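Key result, reporting period 2: structure in, sequence out.
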């Protein structure tokens, strides 16, 4: 089944990251692109089930605009640092094409889209957890994020655990990811010099 939506604030994070990334963080930027595709897909599927898209051209145009933005982000990612590889690129483009057809009622189904998304989720769902905070303590999470970014880890951001079924709900986390497991372990080992209890966990 399709999972909950990712925060669309990741799109803002991606633009900033794409402009400032070094080679390693360029890869993280591409991972974030793919996870934002998952988030937009879930939003579209949810509204389709609720019939909020049917006969609503304004809503369709809104989603087509978001998908168009993602096409641009994919093109930028392709040009930076050698990411993505061709297989990941084609998988992601295929999902976007299916979503556009689905929104325009020209084909596609929820199952087709979910099958495509499963390829995106399969090996890139690991997060480096650098702090967990109740929702009422968002300011504390921001302070830790800012502090770690000042050390040069510009890809660190705040995520809502409600969007990830394998994480404890009701929290904000300061995190880096989603990543492949081996990359998450590597970054965790680097970041323990600043956060001694850093750990990794899969979001799905």
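The corresponding designed sequence is given below.
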């Amino acid at each position: 089944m399709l999972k909950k939506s990712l925060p669309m604030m990741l799109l803002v994070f991606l633009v900033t990251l794409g402009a400032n990334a070094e080679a390693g963080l360029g890869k993280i930027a591409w991972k974030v692109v793919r996870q934002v595709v998952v988030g937009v897909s879930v939003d579209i599927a949810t509204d389709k089930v609720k019939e909020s898209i049917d006969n609503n051209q304004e809503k369709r145009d809104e989603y087509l605009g978001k998908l168009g933005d993602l096409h641009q982000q994919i093109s930028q990612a392709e040009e930076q640092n050698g990411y993505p590889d061709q297989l990941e690129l084609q998988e992601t483009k295929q999902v976007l094409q299916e979503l556009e057809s689905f929104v325009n009622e020209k084909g596609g189904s929820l199952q087709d889209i979910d099958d495509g998304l499963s390829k995106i989720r399969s090996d890139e769902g690991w997060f480096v957890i650098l702090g967990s905070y109740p929702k009422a303590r968002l300011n504390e999470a921001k302070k830790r994020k800012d502090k770690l970014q000042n050390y040069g880890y510009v890809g660190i951001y705040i995520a809502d655990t409600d969007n990830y079924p394998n994480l404890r709900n009701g929290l904000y986390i300061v995190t880096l990811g989603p990543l492949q497991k081996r990359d998450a372990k590597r970054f965790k080992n680097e970041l323990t010099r600043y956060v001694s209890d850093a750990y990794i966990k899969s979001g799905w």
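The radius of gyration is 17 Å. Confidence is low (pLDDT under 50) at residues 1-25. This case is discussed further under Risks and Mitigation.
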